[in-house]
């Protein structure tokens, strides 16, 4: 018997009430992720998340049959702790499109724009003051994999300079009006919390983890 | 009846005058003749005398720091070219000490990169660094905005200048930038001689110094700014305690290790101590530093390696005399840049 994904149920009710909107749903084992909830990794290590914030930008909606596309050059800020940031494109008929591509993070021109307004507001906690630019994604929490007293982990992933420009292109099928972001895929293959539990600098490591993050969208 | 008409007319005139006066408050910024176009995006923050006054008040107000003890001016004093005289590195709240020499502020409208490592790309955004840096003002932006909002003077000023009661970080930094972008220093003896103004001429010693400067220094300290957006190694070894690798911190590129921004030499006479960590106190010793360098050091900037600075004692004095012609006293004592509060 085919098991109905809990996310499908969420999205079904969501689509009844919010038709024409796009939603990002972070998940763990296909269940909507909740902050401070303790989950188990494949190897039965505990993990919980206290922060998940990210930028998504430069959306492109694609209609396969006609080849029609619509580009939306915008910057979207997502914060799992703030439900007002979870739904986008309220005036777009999402059901008309088959695929969506977007950038996880900001490209270099957005990083250096100096705007500081709306999604660029430093109050959102994503602005890097010491090295002008923005964090593409912030992820923090606790895990038994972190062998310190507090078991805390914290990742600020960003950087737009060659060769470690960490913004990632993502393309996913748009079967429903949501994009799933499955975080269980990160541990331990993309992020080994035993080796690295704090990362606040742009560079090779941030770049490689960002690549792994892009593969978590489906 | 006539009296009431007169009163009505007088009221109308006052309204027109107050509106006109508001429009007439000028920003001190100006474009010196023969200078290139500024890099600053004035379209995004058009010059406005009222916003300048708000920015000036904020610049001098310790309200920006967590314990209300440190203002921008604590490390950027006007009469020392907006640098931090006599302190090798900047001081923050609770006696905290940073690891870099607070640089002088002048002609920032023509700069694209800020800080000794060029990590900041926008003059507006620059202000966020000292405000939030733990070794400087250590202030949370949301707490600061709350503080400004609770201040009758500042909340009224932001409402008047930006038309908002919801003060956001971009309002704050744009107001501060109105002040810092206006700090134009282009009226030194050097400038007057170049403009053939007021019959100004160099002394013999200054003229000799200018020849030496052009030969040995100008390839990095290019006029009219005498410094700017380039990063060079001037042979200073790594400070064993500060461990500041300069530009490499930003780019992650090992080739950028110990490269620091070429500072402006305008008003250099007054902006001591010198170098990125303030390790040299006297200007004559800065010149001596270059004459004593090991020019076989492959990490030295190529300009220095190609053209080693070899100067006799007298030539060093000539060069010093020329550097002093870059002092702009009208800038250092300009009333428009002095301490002020909002009424």
Description:
Chain A is mainly β and 218 residues long. Chain A has one domain (6-214). Chain A has 3 helices and 13 strands. In chain A, strands 3, 4, 5, 7, 8, 9, 10, 11 and 13 form a 9-stranded mixed beta sheet that branches. In chain A, strands 1, 2, 6 and 12 form a 4-stranded mixed beta sheet that branches. Chain A is globular. The two termini of chain A are 23 Å apart. Residues 12-18 of chain A have low confidence and may be disordered. Chain B is mainly alpha-helical and 343 residues long. Chain B has 2 domains: 28-185, Cytochrome c-like domain (Cytochrome Bc1 Complex, Chain D, domain 2), CATH 1.10.760; 189-327, Cytochrome c-like domain (Cytochrome Bc1 Complex, Chain D, domain 2). Chain B has 15 helices and 2 strands. Chain B has helices at residues 2-24, 49-59, 72-75, 123-126, 128-132, 141-150, 152-162, 169-180, 189-194, 204-216, 248-251, 283-291, 302-306, 313-324, 329-332; strands at 231-232, 260-261. A two-stranded antiparallel ribbon of chain B has the order 1-2. In chain B, helix 10 crosses helix 14 and helix 12 crosses helix 14. Chain B is globular and about 80 Å long. Chain B starts with a helix and ends in an 11-residue tail after the last helix. At the A-B interface, loops of A face helix 5, helix 6, helix 8 and helix 11 of B.
Could you give the topology of this structure?
The complex is a heterodimer of chains A (218) and B (343).
Chain A: H1 6-17, E1 22-28, E2 31-32, E3 39-40, E4 46-62, E5 69-79, E6 87-88, E7 99-104, H2 108-111, E8 127-128, E9 133-143, E10 152-158, E11 168-173, E12 178-182, E13 198-199, H3 204-214
Parallel strand pairs in A: 1-12, 10-13
Antiparallel strand pairs in A: 1-2, 1-6, 3-4, 4-5, 4-7, 4-9, 7-11, 8-9, 9-10
Chain B: H1 2-24, H2 49-59, H3 72-75, H4 123-126, H5 128-132, H6 141-150, H7 152-162, H8 169-180, H9 189-194, H10 204-216, E1 231-232, H11 248-251, E2 260-261, H12 283-291, H13 302-306, H14 313-324, H15 329-332
């Amino acid at each position: 018997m085919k098991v109905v994904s809990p996310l499908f149920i969420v999205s079904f009710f969501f689509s009844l009430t919010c038709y024409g909107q796009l939603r990002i749903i972070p998940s763990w084992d296909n269940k909507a992720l909740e902050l401070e909830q303790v989950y188990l990794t494949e190897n039965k290590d505990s993990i919980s998340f206290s922060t998940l914030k990210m930028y998504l930008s430069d959306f492109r909606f694609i209609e396969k049959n006609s080849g029609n596309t619509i580009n939306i050059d915008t910057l979207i800020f997502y914060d799992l702790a703030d439900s007002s940031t979870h739904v986008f494109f309220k005036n777009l008929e999402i059901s008309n499109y088959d695929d969506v591509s977007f950038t996880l993070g900001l490209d270099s021109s957005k990083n250096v724009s100096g705007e500081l307004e709306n999604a660029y507001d430093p109050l959102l906690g994503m602005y890097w003051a010491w090295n002008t630019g923005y964090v593409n994604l912030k992820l923090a929490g606790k895990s038994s994999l972190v062998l310190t007293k507090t078991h805390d982990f914290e990742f600020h992933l960003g950087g737009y300079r060659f060769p470690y420009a960490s913004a990632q292109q993502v393309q996913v099928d748009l079967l429903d009006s949501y994009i799933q972001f499955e975080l269980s895929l990160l541990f331990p293959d993309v992020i080994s919390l035993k080796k690295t539990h704090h990362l606040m600098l742009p560079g090779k490591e941030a770049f490689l983890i960002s690549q792994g993050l892009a593969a978590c969208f489906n | 009846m006539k009296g009431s008409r007169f009163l009505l007319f007088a009221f109308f005139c006052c309204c027109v005058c107050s509106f006109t006066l508001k429009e007439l408050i000028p920003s001190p910024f100006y474009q010196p003749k023969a200078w290139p176009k500024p890099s600053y995006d004035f379209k995004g923050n058009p010059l406005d005398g009222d916003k300048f006054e708000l920015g000036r008040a904020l610049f001098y107000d310790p309200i920006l720091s967590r314990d209300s003890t440190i203002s921008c001016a604590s490390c950027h004093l006007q009469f020392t070219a907006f640098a931090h005289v006599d302190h090798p590195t900047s001081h923050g709240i609770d006696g905290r000490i940073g690891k870099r020499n607070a640089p002088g502020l002048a002609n920032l409208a023509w700069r694209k990169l800020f800080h000794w490592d060029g990590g900041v790309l926008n003059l507006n955004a620059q202000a966020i660094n000292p405000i939030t840096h733990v070794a400087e003002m250590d202030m949370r932006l949301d707490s600061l905005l709350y503080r400004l909002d609770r201040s009758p003077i500042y909340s009224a000023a932001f409402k008047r200048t930006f038309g908002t009661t919801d003060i956001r970080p971009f309002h704050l930094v744009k107001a501060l930038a109105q002040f810092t972008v206006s700090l134009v220093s282009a009226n030194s003896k050097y400038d007057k001689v170049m403009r053939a103004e007021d019959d100004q001429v160099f002394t013999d010693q200054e003229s000799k110094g200018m020849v030496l400067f052009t030969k040995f220094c100008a390839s990095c300290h290019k006029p009219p700014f005498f410094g700017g957006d380039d990063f060079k190694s001037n042979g200073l070894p790594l400070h064993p305690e500060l461990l500041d690798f300069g530009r490499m911190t930003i780019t992650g590129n090992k080739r950028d290790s110990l490269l620091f921004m070429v500072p402006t030499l305008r008003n250099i006479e007054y902006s001591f101590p010198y170098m990125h960590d303030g390790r040299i106190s006297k200007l004559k010793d800065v010149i001596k530093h270059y004459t004593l360098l090991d020019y076989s050091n492959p990490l030295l900037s190529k300009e220095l390696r190609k053209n080693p600075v070899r100067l006799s004692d007298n030539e060093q004095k000539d060069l010093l005399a020329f550097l002093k012609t870059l002092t702009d006293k009208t800038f250092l004592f300009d009333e428009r840049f002095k301490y002020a509060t909002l009424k």
